[in-house]
Amino acid sequence: MLSLLSPVRAYERLKREWMLYHLGDPRFRFMWDPAPDQEWVSLDCETTGLNVRTDDIISIGAVRIVGNRILTSERLELLVRPDQKLSAESVRIHRLREKDVANGVSQDEAMHQLMRFIGSRPLVGYFLEFDVAMINRVLFPILGMGLPQPKIEVSGMYYDYKFKQLPAHQQDRQIDLRFATLMADLNLPLRDAHDAVNDAVMAGLAFIKLRQLRGA
Length: 216
Fold this sequence. Notes:
CATH superfamily: Ribonuclease H-like superfamily/Ribonuclease H
Helix content: 40-55%
Largest sheet: 5 strands, mixed
Radius of gyration: 19 Å
Strand order of the largest sheet: 3-2-1-4-5
Distance between the termini: 34 Å
Number of domains: 1
Structural class: alpha/beta
Order of helices and strands: HEEEHHHEHEHHH
Number of helices: 8
CATH topology: Nucleotidyltransferase, domain 5
CATH architecture: 2-Layer Sandwich
Strand content: 15-25%
Mean pLDDT: 89
Shape: globular
């Protein structure tokens, strides 16, 4: 007897086939392969500013997570050459100067290296939506679409964890989602912030700890 696909699985299969049909560069079909079991990629970007439409990526950090381990020896660390000059505020925050990024890879080359590093693994990050939006702006002319991998937001995991601890009469209380607060509450080490690899490692540590706390 033939088994029927559930509506959700059927939709996902059709969506995958549609995206592969419209894929701008068939060399990257591997991103739609089944993801390796218990593997993720924690990702962070540093940028010239916070405007997704006009600012540029200047560095990318990514580390692979396998089970409960962060493979820092298997990391991607890129300086990316921006299309615009760095502001004094950007240099102050990221400690990356014009001469540091001048010899970085082009934004297109950064996307090619990043896609190969991620493969089909789900993405993990802290306020990942911004990083993905910055990446997708560069990626769209290459692929005709953005990153297809599932995306896991660490601040959302932390919010759910804290919300479940609140008694009913306090559930309208605001939960502090600042990165430093999150890391301290989870008793995790803080690395220097505004460094793409450090931020990716910290988000990965928080992801692993929160999965353990919820018994995943």
